[in-house]
Amino acid sequence: MKYAAPRGTRDILPADSPLWQLVENVCRHYFTLYNYREIRTPLFESTELFTRSIGDSTDIVKKEMYTFPDRKGRSLTLRPEATAAVVRAGLENNLITADSLTKLYYLGPMFRYERPQAGRQRQFHQAGAEVFGSSDPLLDAEVIKLCVDLFKALGLKELEVSLNSVGCRNCQPAYRTAVQQYFRQHAKALCADCQARLLTNPLRILDCKEGSCQSFIEKAPAALDHLDQECRAHFDKLVGWLDAWQVKYRVNSRLVRGLDYYTKTAFEVVSRQLGAQNALCGGGRYDNLVEELGGKPTPAIGFAIGLERLIEVMNKLNLERPAEGPELFIATIGDAARQVGVQLLAEARSKGVSADLDYLGKSLKAQLKAADRIKAAHVYIIGDEELKKKTGLLKNMATAEQKEVPFDQLLAQSDHSCGCGDDCRCE
Description:
By secondary structure, the chain is of the alpha+beta class. The protein is built from 14 helices and 16 strands.
């Protein structure tokens, strides 16, 4: 019997891992740069945590959650998103308090039963950040700038923020009524899902991607026209800070997020390099969720980046990939040369130089082929003649250039401790 990965999941293979590691490392660097601390929550939580936070009428809760009973009959769900779990962990462990600012970030897998397609899997990975304790629009601007800075560091260009405000408890009801009344006039032309949303949650129609609904969505009432004075002032201050930081944005007054807990700021970071499907991440403010999940009223804002989508985009744009293979491969001929090679291998690794050698007893020709296959940057060859002179032959695999380097200078302390020269990639 031949086994395969379950539908909607995929293996991240060794050839792909360096790019994933690069993205994760850049995320960690920028989260730390902005003073966020990492939090890791369980892969599954009580089902009620998600139904209560995300909303019973959302597609995620109605169609996409992996929910199952445990051995005692308690309903558990694989996390479809991280914000609710971070709030739960923050409250349970007293990380979220009304009189302090708490900045947290996460990286890890999420699970949704969706139709698999490019950049979208049933097990997918997100990197995201959440901030609790401040309603200051400057914080909204900082979160947005963090996203933009992170994507710039990965080489993405033509970045722009799609920006909206969805209002608060005071002004959302009037906007919801206006949207519902508008779409009732076109109910028969809407897709089946939006016809149902018209009764249960009309704002979700604005997030529909079906072509039959798009022409009506473009002419729907604008959220910004229904904001109360407080929400309007918050939005105006936010765009003022974005202007001050020279962050490019475009107001999209019909932008909503796919979760019910959002209030005020909603945003996506997009790249015009990518055509129509150009969103790289999304987020917004959720000032009621902490209270909804049992805490004291606490303003909050956050965002999430879909890493599969980001990796797909980086591959599509042929952005520079990190080196895949070791810096040094030591090829030896004979037992005596192998003894020296093993010693140099240990010394290289102790000095932080990635290195490897042959463990299969291959010929020199086969060792060179193996080094090329694993994308080694340099090969250091030791044979009988090299042993006599105590000097090996260092070969640059990219240029095929060779030079003699004494054993005791291969890893000499210098700007390039491995002896590779100016093209060294030992960092």
